[in-house]
């Protein structure tokens, strides 16, 4: 079992947008500091940050479960390695986002 290709593709398409985002954010903050503006406007409210952390946590758990189930499908069925991994990663990633949506909606309704 060799998933280096999968990891390489995810790394390339994950690292490049991250670098672009960080460079843009740095330039934006630098411009605000030069104009003498307050940086507290860039920091979101605590509720948004908590929900964002929850979203990423649930998504990463879903992706991990998808990799695990993909490995099980690869080992015990006749599915190709790529098909089993990618299908389960996308399936469980999507399910995780739907679960997050339900959790966020319930939290919003409670208030």
UniProtKB/TrEMBL annotation:
Alphabetically ordered keywords of this record: Membrane, Transmembrane, Transmembrane helix
Keyword Nucleotide-binding annotated: no
InterPro entries, A to Z: DUF6249
Pfam families recorded: DUF6249 (PF19762)
Regions that span the bilayer: 6-23, 56-73, 85-104
The keyword Membrane belongs to this UniProt entry's keyword annotation: yes
Domain DUF6249 per the UniProt entry, residue ranges: 7-104
Name the UniProt record assigns to this protein: DUF6249 domain-containing protein
Species name: Paralabilibaculum antarcticum
């Amino acid at each position: 079992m060799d998933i280096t290709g999968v990891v390489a593709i995810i790394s390339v398409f994950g690292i490049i947008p991250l670098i672009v985002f960080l460079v843009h954010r740095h330039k934006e903050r630098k411009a605000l500091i030069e104009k003498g503006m307050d940086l507290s406007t860039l920091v979101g409210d605590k509720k948004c940050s908590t929900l964002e952390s929850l979203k990423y946590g649930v998504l990463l758990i879903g992706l991990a479960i998808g990799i695990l189930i993909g490995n099980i499908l690869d080992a015990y069925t006749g599915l190709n390695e790529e098909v089993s991994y990618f299908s389960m990663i996308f399936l469980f990633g999507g399910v995780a986002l739907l679960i997050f949506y339900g959790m966020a909606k319930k939290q919003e309704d409670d208030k």
